[in-house]
Write a structure and sequence with these properties.
26% strand; five-stranded antiparallel sheet; elongated; alpha+beta
């Protein structure tokens, strides 16, 4: 069976399940390959952030998909030396799944919700409202491409989000 849909895990319920990494075996590894991309040493004058609007949980696969979309677009359009891109969330929360059998006679074999702690199935990042998830730093001439790439990443996430300019707003007011 495949993974449950993201809507099953988007809402934040109960305390964070992060300490289990020390004690529980079989936690899947994070799919996020890199957290810093592009030119890490240059000092760019404009910062553009992807900010979520609601508190929620975002699976590591959604974060990786948005990272790939932004990085691929910036590599093609701007070039590796002209941007710095950082993923600002880490999937520490372990999602558990209480697998239920779905065939004839399953009610005589399984306990339902008795001892229903569940097995580790996935990882997620718990994010607060108005938290910055991704940050792209560029020069003023590449602002439109950076904003377009972040808009692409919004469609990969299970939460409503927006684009916000942090540093360098006065440099790009006429371009927006």
């Amino acid at each position: 069976m495949g993974k449950r849909p993201a809507r099953c895990y988007t809402k934040v319920r109960g305390p964070a399940n992060t300490r289990t990494k020390k004690y529980v075996r079989g936690i899947p590894g994070s799919k996020i390959v890199m957290y810093d991309m592009g030119n890490k040493s240059k000092d760019f004058s404009v910062e553009i952030h992807l900010v979520n609007e609601e508190a929620c949980q975002i699976r590591h696969m959604a974060i990786e998909a948005s990272r790939q979309a932004v990085n691929r677009h910036l590599l093609k359009r701007v070039g590796r030396e002209n941007y710095h891109f950082r993923v600002r969330t880490h999937p520490h929360h372990v999602l558990r799944e209480n697998k239920m059998m779905a065939f004839a006679g399953a009610d005589r074999m399984q306990d339902g919700m008795r001892r229903s702690f569940g097995k580790p199935a996935d990882r997620a990042a718990r994010v607060k409202a108005n938290q910055e998830l991704l940050t792209v730093r560029v020069e003023p001439r590449h602002v439109k491409e950076a904003m377009f790439s972040i808009r692409k990443a919004i469609s990969k996430l299970p939460t409503p989000a927006k684009v916000r300019i942090g540093k360098g707003l006065e440099l790009v007011k006429n371009q927006i």
